[in-house]
Amino acid sequence: MEFIYYFGEVFTPISMLLLIGGTVGGLILGATPGLSPTMAVALLIPFTFHLSAVHGLILLGAAYTSTVAGGAVSAILLKIPGAPANIATTLDGHAMALKGEGAKALQLSFISSLFGGVFGVFLLIFLTPVLAEWALAFGPSHLFWLAILGVTVIGSLESNSVVKGLLSGCIGMWLATIGFDDMLGVKRFVFHSSLGGGVNIIPALIGLFAIPQVITMFASGRFDQDFERIKVKKHPIGDAFREVFKRTRALSIGTITGSIIGLIPGVGGQIAGLVAYDQSKKFSSEKAKFGTGHSEGVIAAEAANNAMVGPSLVPLLTLSIPGSPTAAVLLGGLLIHGIFPGVDLFENHPDVAWPFINSMLIGQILMCIFGIYIASFAARVAQVPKSVMAATVLGLALFGSYAVQQSMGDVYVMAVLGTMMFFLERFGFSAAPLVLGLILGPIAESNFVQGSMIADAQNGPMTYFFTGTLNIVLIAVVVVSIGYSAWSELSSRKVEQ
Amino acid sequence: MNYLQHRISSGIIAIVAIWVCWISFTQKPAEAFLFPRVIAVFFLILALWTFAKAVLGRSRVGNGLSRTAAKNMAPGVAVAGIYIFWAAKALGFYCSSTIAFFILLSLYDPAPSSELKTWIKRSLITAGFIAIMYALFAGVLKVYTPRGMFI
Fold it and tell me: I want to staple A150 with a disulfide (CB 3.0 to 4.6 A). Which of A121, A168, A321, A473 is the partner?
């Protein structure tokens, strides 16, 4: 119950201001098609550089929570999911909006997001310290395998092609080795003066997530987006609460499914909503109503995608393995403040870890309150033309990456990596494993070097890295995750044929 | 599926992988390149695998870049390139951002360019954007940006 002692920090004026700002901003960014939660959090990281670690994380946590929920606004009113996590919400949410029940659908989505989100954060509160204690038993070889596991899990599960996912992870890990070697101070792969200090995580994150979106908007050309204008009629909030409590089965299925999926590293919120929707339909007595504007569809999907948020941080805060691409960006946010996940976080920085987790709990409540009240306004923001969006994101990317170290080199790195990622995405590569390779690369390398030194003094590297229960378990999980993804890819190809 | 594009892109990645491998195994001292060597081996294997699949016409994910998309993005990418690699430093961040924002808006805004109303709207949006950026970065975050010829 240690977390209760740290609630005070969340209610300081600056924390509340950041929490409210992050929530409202996140709702608006989430409602904007084309701005994914990952990209929104990546663009916010430069601002946290000027804040203390705890305040920076409060801002990022609030933005993460509310961008996922905010995506429901455009999913319901415009039939464009604000984030991939909201795909399932469009199925019944937009149908409800077409029937004149847009306000009801929005209220149901925010209330079920609140229930799912609070349950997810409680899982985070109770599971994280237990797992962090367990992480104490980890030596350099285990930490090396954990870093490799993080990259391979995201690489194999997040991508449509296992080989390309793993290759992205390798590219990220190679990028992490650029610059001066920590042990001997030797220059490695420095082929331009901008790379002397290595690839800084923040400009890289901004480039890898924001620039491909900007170029994609350019590539879609000069066209007028034809939004369906749907009138949102007023709906009493009390009725929405009653409806959610009446549909407890859908709410429970969504919440439990989202929480379990969030705990699995690499799976992410995209499938949480869809799996919950599917399960809710299977167990419903009104199966035929799904897809025609049935409230259970909205409740299950939205409860699931917000229930996923808290648990996706459990493997991140304990073992440095992000549960989703956005969690990977949050890991970057932690590292720039010199905070390493695991037992260090809860023993040496409880004043950072607990206020951050507690703020996510308060953030869920604020997200529901503000979400309901600004939903119709956010829908108007969601109709911002792509031309304005592209130019704004480009400007923010330039200023944000420069602000980190006041270096033009960082800006060039951001632009080059972003352009490279745009082309890589066109050929089936994804940014998440590359980013994870970049973030986990230094952790893997330092533990690999330490492990090699210990191994030299003992029985050699083969014994040190490949024997022992924990090593074997971790290697087995790496192999199983790659094998499972390869098997899924092959079977889906057979189905296609 | 554009197989030629897949072959070119995976060929470039394979060349980079060979270069990384060569550097990792030839540079001294070897201790500093211990970890890069491990990464380089996997990088090379996966890159060659991807290249072989592309050459055999078995790449299944990624649709490549269509001619229309390339034509659409070319002016935007050119403006963004000049803005980032030259204008930001030469003209100053705020001045170059104003010009780049306005050009990009004019290039991709579907509103008819023959109407005065459209140009007024674009100018106001640009002014609003730059005012927010100035307040945020110069006012709140106190970031000293390159001044160049202007600000």
Answer: A321
